[in-house]
Design a protein that fits this description.
The chain is α/β, with parallel strands linked by helices and about 425 residues long. The protein folds into four domains: about 20-45 and about 200-340, Molybdenum Cofactor Biosythetic Enzyme, Chain A (3-Layer(aba) Sandwich); about 45-65 and about 160-195, Molybdopterin biosynthesis moea protein, domain 2; about 70-155, Beta Complex (Molybdopterin biosynthesis moeA protein, domain 3), CATH 2.170.190; about 350-425, MoeA, C-terminal, domain IV (Beta-clip, Beta Barrel), CATH 2.40.340.10. The chain is built from eight helices and 28 strands. The strands form eight sheets. It has a six-stranded mixed beta sheet with strand order 7-4-6-5-9-8, with no helix packed on it. Strand 20 and strand 21 (about 310-315) form a beta hairpin. Helix 2 (about 25-35) packs across helix 7. The structure holds ligand LQZAQKY5 and molybdate ion. Its EC number is 2.10.1.1. Its cofactor is Mg(2+). Pfam families: MoCF_biosynth, MoeA_C, MoeA_N. One of its GO terms (cellular component) is cytosol.
């Protein structure tokens, strides 16, 4: 599959250089390789529009009718014929009838008269303009009019928003609130959507316990499980939460195999680094899977496995909670969107100004939890970071406004430098 431009929009984090075997690949290369593996789910479903919110449109929709459907009034006022306004104003014209939204509106405006008309009502034959009622003075069954309206004034023309036969929405669009309003306006009572992708996920780590349960020395509460539960609470995904699995190769293999039988995408956290307790690369291979990416030149998130097992795509995110979040946010979510057939979704990026000075070691692209500060005189916001050692700093992450993107080749950031920033959508 050729990834769509939006999904593969590069981070310019070193993709210009040729990958060296065994060395970390750039974020862009990792993303591209993941997207190449992500064949969109093929099955389609027909759903009533009211049950399709947030789903991914499976077919391009074309308009069978124009939008607006018929010429109609943009204002509450009076439908007039311009020929009735002879000479200089003011003019006085009798009100011969009324037409409201929902009326069939077949009767013409009688010559020498006006019709009372309301917003959304069909424009009666002969009517060349609608005069807002505020521009008229009613006087005993007549109106007085001081100004000659322009031809077509306050008339919303049929087809001016969308012509009959035009594309309403392309396949791959998420049916968000705006899309739903348009589909409804063009009469789409049912839509064809892609089936939900199935995502199985588990956390690895013998130290992990569920929050709310007591801990023995050395144990911690599982954060990544709850991050992924939230991140996968999506209308176009069916999440299968497999809980936590101890750092034992046999258990991990069982979990991986079970997940891959049921899911399009398997996500695990932890166990992807180089320690003796980091089993996932070996477990993936032992289970017949293939490894496509092992390490990415990013911080946090250097150890990141992208592979395949059976029919499923596999993502082994690092265990450190901020590393797991960043790798999911920047790479994992893009891959999930591509599997779901979504043609959009790369995180929005804005330009900010550094509010700090920092000298750094080039070579890895950084995605640092950061807070936005005040605006400069040109409407650009300053950004502040607390530290670059962030991989375990969940509090810093939760308090951040987004991720500051530091390109891999950067060796120095000076106050006032312009940088890219990925704002978080949620509050
Ligand atoms: N010798 C090296 N050690 C490490 C390297 C390295 O290159 N050489 N990389 C470091 C980096 S960077 C990261 S990131 C971590 C990633 O390691 P793993 O993915 O194997 O993760 P674990 O070792 O299983 O866990 C790391 C850390 O995160 C905690 N953790 C794990 N899962 C959870 C969870 N579900 N909720 C909360 N916290 C979790 C775990 O307890 C560890 O503290 O490796 C570095 N080491
Ligand atoms: O790369 Mo690790 O993910 O920094 O913490």
């Amino acid at each position: 599959m050729t990834p769509s431009p939006a999904l593969s929009d590069p981070f310019h984090c070193g993709c210009e250089t040729e990958p060296v075997p065994g060395a970390p690949v750039s974020v862009d290369v990792a993303l591209r390789q993941g997207l190449e593996l992500a064949e969109p789910v093929a099955e389609l479903e027909r759903l009533p529009l009211g049950k399709a919110h947030g789903r991914v449109l499976g077919e391009t929709v074309r308009a069978e009718t124009p939008l607006p459907l018929f010429d109609n009034s943009a204002m509450d006022g009076y439908a007039i014929r311009l020929a009735d306004l002879a000479g200089e104003g003011p003019w006085r014209l009798p009100v011969a009838g009324r037409v409201a939204a929902g009326d069939a509106g077949n009767g013409p405006v009688p010559a020498g008269s006006v019709l009372r008309i309301f917003t959304g009502a069909p424009i009666p034959p002969g009517c060349e303009a609608v005069v807002m009622q505020e521009m008229t003075q009613p006087e005993g069954g007549t109106i007085r009019l001081d100004r000659r309206p322009e031809p077509g004034e306050n008339i919303r023309r049929s087809g001016e928003d969308l012509a009959a036969g035009a594309e309403v929405m392309p396949a791959g669009r998420r049916i968000g609130p705006r899309a739903a309003a348009l589909l409804a306006s063009t009469g789409c009572g049912e839509v064809i959507v892609r089936r939900r992708i199935r995502v199985a996920f588990f956390s690895t780590g013998s130290e992990l316990r569920a929050p709310g349960t007591p801990l023995a020395p050395g144990q911690i509460w599982n954060a990544n499980r709850y991050h992924l539960q939230g991140a996968l609470d999506l209308p176009w995904a069916e999440a299968m939460d497999m809980g936590a699995v101890a750092d034992r190769p046999d258990r991990l293999r069982e979990a991986l195999e079970e997940a891959s039988r049921n899911a399009d995408l398997v996500v695990s956290t932890g166990g992807v680094s180089v320690g003796e307790e980091d089993h996932m690369p070996a477990v993936l291979r032992a289970a017949g899977g293939t490894v496509h990416v092992m390490k990415v030149a990013m911080k946090p998130g250097k150890p990141l496995l992208i592979g395949r097992i059976g029919k499923a795509l596999y993502l082994g995110l690092p265990g450190n909670p901020v590393s797991a979040f960043v790798t999911w946010h920047v790479i994992g979510a893009r891959i999930a969107e591509a599997l779901a057939g979504l043609a959009e979704g790369a995180p929005r990026r804005i330009i900010v100004r550094a509010g700090f000075d920092r000298v750094r070691q080039p070579g890895r692209c950084e995605f640092l939890p950061a807070r936005l500060g005040s605006y400069d005189g040109h409407g650009t916001r300053t950004v502040e970071i607390a530290t670059s050692e962030v991989s375990h700093r969940v509090a810093l992450l939760a308090q951040a406004d987004g991720l500051l993107l530091v390109p891999s080749e950067t060796d120095r950031i000076q106050r006032g430098d312009m940088l890219e920033f990925l704002p978080f959508h949620e509050g």
